[in-house]
Amino acid sequence: MASEAISAALIRRLRISSGLSDADINEIHTLPILVREYPAERAGVRDGERCTECCLIAGGFCIRSKNIPDGNRQILSIHIPGEVPDLMSLFLHVMDHDLMTLTPCTLGFISHEALRQLHRRRPDIAEMFWRDTLIDAAMLRDWIVNVGQRSAPARLAHVMAELRQRLKVVGRLNENSFEMPLTQEQLSEALGITAVHANRVIRQLREDAIVDFQRGRATILNERKFMELADFDNRYLHESPAL
DNA sequence: TCATTAACTGAGG
DNA sequence: CCTCAGTTAATGA
Hints:
Elements: H1 3-17, H2 22-29, E1 33-38, E2 43-45, E3 53-59, E4 62-67, E5 73-79, E6 98-101, E7 105-111, H3 112-121, H4 123-149, H5 152-169, E8 177-179, H6 184-191, H7 195-207, E9 211-214, E10 217-220, H8 223-230
Antiparallel strand pairs: 1-7, 2-6, 3-7, 4-5, 4-6, 8-10, 9-10
Helix pairs in contact: 3-4, 5-8, 6-7
The protein binds a DNA duplex through helix 7.
């Protein structure tokens, strides 16, 4: 994939929540990006690592996760093309979690030095990254509420609703189904339940004709029941550019 | 390897 | 007593 196409993914992402001038766009296109291909289920960036670059997802799906000593893992967020899940490494010098690929991924690495220069050169762009980071925190707050307070079926529906919305705004939604490339085991790690229970929950939602989940793809069967169960309000995604 | 299901168990309302 | 969810184990795709 050409570097130009990769920076385009970032621009599309930043456009969701911020206005971008032509000058901004040109600046982002000049960023040097080193492209690397990763297989599925591989650490892009590891907990404890000292980073010298940030990682832009150009293709594929990633997750943030943290392992605890008993061997269990909590999935903290799901990431889609155009996102920079380890943007915090620019200012937080040691990673406090893993960034893993879910699927085979094309990752674009941008050096911290290049990003710092860009921040100094163009305060508007620095502001955009600020906003992006704050939205990320808002999404994590939402994730905590989901895992901590909702019933298991509602947790699943909520994560589905958020992912669907995020895929929608980058034009990756077709009809009533969308990519959600997690195994049931991974899904259980995202929802804080066992894999067996994740299976039970999926079966229940399928039987109730609310959603289906098969081979990494989610299908909405009953929009009204789905949204009611998911309790999803996209406000926390802050998708509209400031007016 | 991943998904499915049953059977059992206990917590908690 | 009912629902939810973890454990174990067997089995299918």
